[in-house]
């Protein structure tokens, strides 16, 4: 019969001693699988640590890259914001200049309009004054007598030879006809409700439809026609000429 062979168990001996004088040398027997297991665990730990550092490095690189991208994006946005602000400021300054220019133009136009209105008002007043028969109807001194003819008021002037019968206001010659008492009669319509009538023996110097201004000559006074009959009508009714006539001297 064959004898059964027994497997020999091999152990690892770990010898150690203390760092001291006369220290005894001690030994520790370890099973191989414990050593192998410890080496495997140690290797795994080393791998984990190395992997952790590699992974952490990648995380930091990614974080740094993201941070750099964010910083760059913020800088680009700030640059664009500054450009927009500059454009807005430039546009605002330009608009302010335009508004200022328009305000100045409006001011000038307003002044011009006010001046035009004032001039028009003054011109209207002048025209109204020129069309209102307030002026003396003779170019020189004359005596005057108030009278009535056919129940209507009339001023009879005794003029000086060499003077002229003048239009008391501007207007249109409404009629030039013969007059049974004074020889000739000129009527002027002043366009504002007033009409003036000039009666004289002289030759009329105007014709029907003529435009006359205040002071236009209607008759020349000679020794044969020194008398002038002057009448004023308003809205178709005779009024006393002295109520509106400006008599000087």
Q: Spell out the helices and strands N to C.
A: EEHEEEEEEEEEE
Computed CA radius of gyration, to the nearest angstrom = 64 Å
End-to-end Cα distance, whole Å, is 187 Å
Unreliable runs: none
> How many domains, in number, for the residues?
2
Give the overall average pLDDT: 85
Q: Specify the helix fraction band.
A: 40-55%
Oligomer: single chain
Task: Please give the count of helices.
Answer: 1
Structural class: alpha+beta
Report the portion of residues in β strands. Answer: 25-35%
What sort of overall outline do the alpha carbons produce when their principal axes are compared?
A: rod-shaped
Largest sheet: 8 strands, antiparallel
Care to count the β-strands?
12
Structure characterization notes:
The chain is α+β, with helices and mostly antiparallel strands and 249 residues long. It has 2 domains: 10-16 and 23-131; 142-243, Glucose Permease (Domain IIA) (Distorted Sandwich). The protein contains 1 helix and 12 strands. It has one helix at 32-131, and strands spanning 12-16, 26-30, 142-149, 152-159, 164-166, 171-179, 183-189, 194-200, 211-212, 217-220, 227-234, 237-239. Strands 3, 4, 6, 7, 8, 9, 11 and 12 form an 8-stranded antiparallel sheet that branches. Strands 1-2 form a two-stranded antiparallel ribbon. β6 and β7 form a beta hairpin. The mean pLDDT is 85.
């Amino acid at each position: 019969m064959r004898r059964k062979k027994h497997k020999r168990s091999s152990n690892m001996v770990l010898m150690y001693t203390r760092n001291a004088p006369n220290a005894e040398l001690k030994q520790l027997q370890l099973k191989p699988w414990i050593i192998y297991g410890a080496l495997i665990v140690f290797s795994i730990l080393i791998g984990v640590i190395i992997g952790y550092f590699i992974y952490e490095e990648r995380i930091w690189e990614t974080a740094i890259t993201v941070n750099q991208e964010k910083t760059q994006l913020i800088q680009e946005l700030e640059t664009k914001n500054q450009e927009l602000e500059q454009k807005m400021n430039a546009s605002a300054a330009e608009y302010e200049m335009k508004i200022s220019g328009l305000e100045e133009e409006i001011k000038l136009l307003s002044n011009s309009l006010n001046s035009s209105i004032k001039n028009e008002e003054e011109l209207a007043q002048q025209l109204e004054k020129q069309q209102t028969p307030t002026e003396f109807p003779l170019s020189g001194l004359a005596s005057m007598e108030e009278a009535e003819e056919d129940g209507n008021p009339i001023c009879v002037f005794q003029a000086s030879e060499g003077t002229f019968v003048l239009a008391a206001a501007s207007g249109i010659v409404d009629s030039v006809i013969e007059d049974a008492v004074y020889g000739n009669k000129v009527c002027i319509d002043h366009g504002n409700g007033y009409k003036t009538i000039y009666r004289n023996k002289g030759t009329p110097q105007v014709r029907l439809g003529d435009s006359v201004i205040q002071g236009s000559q209607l008759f020349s006074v000679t020794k044969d026609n020194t008398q002038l009959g002057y009448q004023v009508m308003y809205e178709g009714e005779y009024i006393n000429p002295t109520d509106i006539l400006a008599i000087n001297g």
